Every structure is written in C-alpha cells, then in structure tokens.
Please model this.
Amino acid sequence: MGAANDAARIEPGDAGFDNAIQRYVFTEGALFQVYAMPGQVTDIALQEGESLVGPGPVAAGDTARWMIGDTLSGSGAGSRVHILVKPTRSDISTNLVINTDRRTYHLELRANPRVYMASVSWTYPEDELIALRLAEQEAKRTAPIADGLMLESLNFDYRITGDKPAWRPLRVFDDGRRTLVEFTPEIARHEMPPIFVIGKGGDAELVNYRVSGRHLILDRLIDKAELRLGQGRKQLRVTITNLARSRS
Model:
C-alpha cells in the first residue's frame, strides 16, 4: 500500500507554475502534493462551474491543526469553488479529500516553515478533448481527432518525470494502438528530442516515430520510454511511464 501511495504522489514542478499558481494535470487517483506555511493561506481552486456535493464534501485527516474552509468566486456558470487551507504548525501533514459533482480530488497537505504554494489549480485534458469533440460534431458529424484517433479510446494514465527542459512534453496518451507525446506550442522554437523505449532490463532502444504538428507518434504502446537530448553530462532526460500497463 505504501508503494502504491508513493507511485501516486505528484509533486509540484517549475514547468507547472503560471505566476504563483501551480497547475497540475488532473489524473484520477493521484495524490497531489500541496505545501503550506503557518501564517499564509493556500488557495485550492476547483474547475469553473464545479460544485461540492454530499454531506461533508471536504474532509481532512487532521482538522485540529489545519484550518480549512471554502468560498466562491464569480457567479453563474463561471462560479468557482476555492478551498482555503492554513496549518497551525510547520511540522505537520494530513490528507484532504474533495468531492464534487465532477470528480474526487485526493491531496496531501504538508506544512513547511519557509515556502508555501499560494494557489493550486488543475487542467483537465479529458474535458478539453470532450469539448473538442463537441465542437467538431457541431461542425461535422465525426469523432476522430485525426487519422482514425478516437476520443473514446484515449488513455491518459501516464507519468512524466525527470529533467525539466523547455521541450518537456505537456502530456502523453494512447488510443490502445499508438502512443502520442504532446508538446507545448513552443516546441516549434526548440529541437524535438528523439525517444527511446526502455526494456525490462533497462536497455534503451531508439525506435521509429513520426512527427505531426506538436505530437510525436509511435505506432505501438510503451511501458516506459525516455526523451533524450544532448551529450554527456549535459544530456537532458525526460522519462515517460505508462501507469496503466505498470499496474497490469
């Protein structure tokens, strides 16, 4: 169980910050790490239009030493729930569960005497793709994104770790047959790194792939792979792990 929790933990990273806001990519079952500090309030902002549901929609393991409340910003469809947390000491931690009409968030709150996260929110790739599908259906009665890629079959259960270069991928997903590595639009200003599939013995194999826009496409599924760029000590590596296959 401890190993499973360790694997599920997602730490904040420089690439995820937008000014003072840490934007995580929402993944069901992940344990999102939130660092707070006595004397400072950390704002956990949910998706616009998302509502808390059920009795006790926000539950924490330690409510004696953590101050936890909620408020709203905006109105109508643009209203947004904010969970506000503040520790009373700098050496404590607890977990936080938030139940909404769209999903359940699992967080681990950790108090720190020197640094804290002012604001935390999420991006929702599956929702973005659903919105894309609806827009496409309105213009044209078709579900594929491109080249037979069907939205209903997409799997986003991947973890991206390692170095944090400017070309670090935005997300990775597959459709059951192909693996797609999606980069930010800024990849056009950088060299796209080659991808190596990591075998069970740890050996790295350079594999064939193709590039379509800002997507790197492999005509196969992977368990683990690395994007590498540079030589020697200056080589940068970003690791991609297929969590769904690692659990099977």
Observations:
- The chain has a mean pLDDT of 87.
